[in-house]
């Protein structure tokens, strides 16, 4: 099928909920993808922070092929080897004690909310959860309510109760919101959809102290910032603060859908048998893909690559920032980088695409770079040059 045929069928049959760009992608390798006309693109969006190993990494491809020939699905009623290998690998490399596998980031956050509330019930507390303005936690009804951005909730009343949102990086606001109804604070160490906003260095540590003082839980949503992206396998490791629960997804499966909730033993124990579950979560194919993905991230030290290449990218962008008033800030951590523009940036993205670079714009005016962690400096140079040229051309028309 060519692009026109696909577009026609999609416009007739698919829910029209995505603002799609007009290309038909056919294949990907490393940091590059190709469309149906054979055009090549540098992918600095990486499937929105999913393709951290690059597209179709051979370790992930081989693991999926091998597992698909053995056992694709069997339900969690039975033990399977890839699942236990994955949970051991993840838990050997972080401070959590137990893992629960699900199918997406949203489902990981849902699981965290349920676990926090179950724990609260067992400790005579209310089930309220404090989240941050600008945060994003997923699209289910509970997750859009937890998300600190109104636009995701509008039109979906009635919403579940028990969520309070306070300004991000503002400890006093959290303290003021804590009362008997609260059992947990949930925060992204680096906000992704909110415009690539890292938590202040001391904020997460202070949040930890505050949660300890009030005997409430600290949940880190690392769905976008985890899995080596910020220069550590888990983002919390770069802040030296240990949460009670962590949610991960996106890069976990090397492109294959899988999410997970990781928790400290005493918190995980709040779930009794039958309290939670999933048909597909942690299935053989997903966990085999994720095991290949996470072991490659660890063995080939992708965290260090993210740190080094992230520093290179930041320096490059800061050089460019000096030359233009249209870039007001460059921020982020590791290879999670936001280029803040002096106006809305949605026109920038299709223009970059026409010139062979896939990025996106979030929080209205932030161009997001979350590329594969093994992207070359040469590809980043090209992406930055394209970005800067497009900004100058598109915004000069505005003036
Ligand atoms: C921090 C964070 N949490 C949760 C989610 C939801 O994940 P998913 O789209 O896999 O449901 C996202 C997705 O962008 C995210 O960035």
Would you write up a description of this structure?
By secondary structure, the chain is of the alpha/beta class. The protein folds into 2 domains: 3-56 and 301-398, Alpha-Beta Complex (Aspartate Aminotransferase, domain 1); 71-299, Aspartate Aminotransferase, domain 2 (3-Layer(aba) Sandwich), CATH 3.40.640.10. 39% of the residues lie in helices and 18% in strands. The chain contains 13 helices and 17 strands. It has helices at residues 3-13, 46-49, 58-70, 81-92, 105-122, 141-146, 171-177, 203-214, 265-268, 284-299, 302-323, 348-354, 377-398, and strands spanning 25-29, 32-35, 40-43, 98-102, 128-132, 163-166, 182-187, 190-191, 197-198, 217-221, 245-248, 259-263, 327-333, 336-341, 357-358, 360-362, 366-369. A hairpin with a 5-residue loop joins β8 and β9 (197-198). The longest helix has 22 residues, at 302-323. The protein is globular, with a radius of gyration of 21 Å. Bound molecules: pyridoxal-5'-phosphate (PLP).
